Amino acid sequence: xxxKPATTSTAADSEVASDxxxxxxxxxxxxxxxxxxxxxxxxxxxxNPDYAVDVGAERWILPSVNDMIAKHPWxxxxxxxxxxxxGKYRMANIVKVGQQLECVxxxxxxLYNYSVPxxxxxxxxxxxxxxxxxxxxxxxxxxxxxxxxxxxxxGWPLRELKFLGALMASWFPNIFFMIVxxxxxxxxxxxxxxxxxxEDIHPIVRNVMSVHLAEEARHISFAHAFLKKHxxxxxxxxxxxxxxxxxxxxxxxxxxxxxxxxxxxxxxxIPDRVRRQMFxxxxxxxxxxxxxxxxxxxxxxxxxxxxxxxxxxxxxRIDGRLSRHRSEPQRDAT
Length: 334
Prior knowledge:
Blueprint: H1 10-35, H2 68-71, H3 73-76, H4 80-115, H5 121-147, H6 162-171, H7 173-196, H8 203-231, H9 236-258, H10 262-267, H11 272-279, H12 282-289, H13 293-301, H14 307-315
Helix pairs in contact: 1-5, 1-8, 4-5, 4-6, 4-7, 5-8, 6-7, 7-8, 7-9, 9-14
């Protein structure tokens, strides 16, 4: 009797296992969305008297633990009432930027879902995530309206390129989910750093951040899983192109979140010299590069951290260490 050669290759076995692992991860994320989700009007204690915007107004003073404006002597030497006004504007504007990026994410995921095959676990999870992001936007807008600052959010040109991110989801989904990571990682880093600190921040900010972080962990987990799954199927040339695009996206979107638009600096007569020191000095670059620790690990894990890409990360001043685990706290060198 002649034995037939085995028909299952190691590569094929690995691909099947990868597909099953990916589907199982998305199933668990979807279950999390079903069983652990938040309501923007029930899970934030808006009617608590302590949540009134002008109660404990000094709690709006920017925390020096993670805000480059607060670290600068120009801000520290301002009268208390001006520190409070800038703090309220800053917090409201960060939330507005988050809301605008969530709108891009929602529209992009809707377009991506349009073409996914029947039975895809991505359709279910993306739909859950869009629902959660809509709720986040309601929560963010409630916070902005209560603060009472007419903030604009993103500056030019990102504000005018709002359709581009969504179109990427249809044409280049890997690039779209890099945009998602670039939008979510810095915000996640800043919020965790603030909540881990002992800073006396306003309870509206603390409550909104806590709700946002709880669900955002799933969203970041999905974006990472998506890229790990889909980038692996790219050609060598495609991977090389993505390796160069990824740090550019991180730098562009990340700084758009962290650095206020010029309208902010004009509103509070902040000198251009001070603006550059706050956000474009060597110290600021090192501080901002920490926001991308997990993004660099992701790039390394999916094969996008080649020698040329490392140079691009360095040129853009967002290079640095690879975190040992997700959201590893920063520690000062001893």
